[in-house]
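Input record (one chain):
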Amino acid sequence: MSYEFKKRLITSVILVCLFFLMFLYNYLLLYFLIIITVISFIEFFNLIKKIKNIFNFRVFFSLIFLIYVSLISFTIFTLSQSLSTKLLSFFLILICFLSDIGGLVFGKIFKGPKLTKISPNKTIAGSIGCFILPVFVSFIFSILELINFNLNLITFILITTLFCQLGDVFISLLKRKAKLKDTGNFLPGHGGILDRVDSIILGFPAGLITFYIMS
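The corresponding structure, as predicted from the sequence alone:
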């Protein structure tokens, strides 16, 4: 087991524990949302600066990003005020995380043709894995009678996952233009905060809108 993989594994375990605590305690959720929003903004600002170091340019796009991410954080916190909407919110975030994990695992195992030149590490197999793992875990949840596994749920997951990948590709495009591997080094073995929440940026809003349209 490589040192980098160990760091990634330990960080992942810590993040899972934090995810569980945020579900239990709303005040912790609020603190973490603020921290994530601020650090994501700083990382995005630095990313834009690497692409085009024109003050008005980077301030304009960074402010748009800050407003957008703040709205997502505000929505997540607002949904956390009741149990049913909190479960929906955290299920959406879980889908985004599972999409990332599925892409990583399937990409490493099956390799194969590249998905796009934007991000050379992403493969078609990895993209398929992004869809498969969230659906599979949801099926396990249905066996445990936690959710109802039906066509609507599958459609909801697939649309959410599609936008998760689009968010990932968007940040990858910015990193490529900035000639950076990661948006930061805040999370050992993972890179920056933005590297971990890139799928949520588009996946969460798309999933939430899909859910309410289908309801």
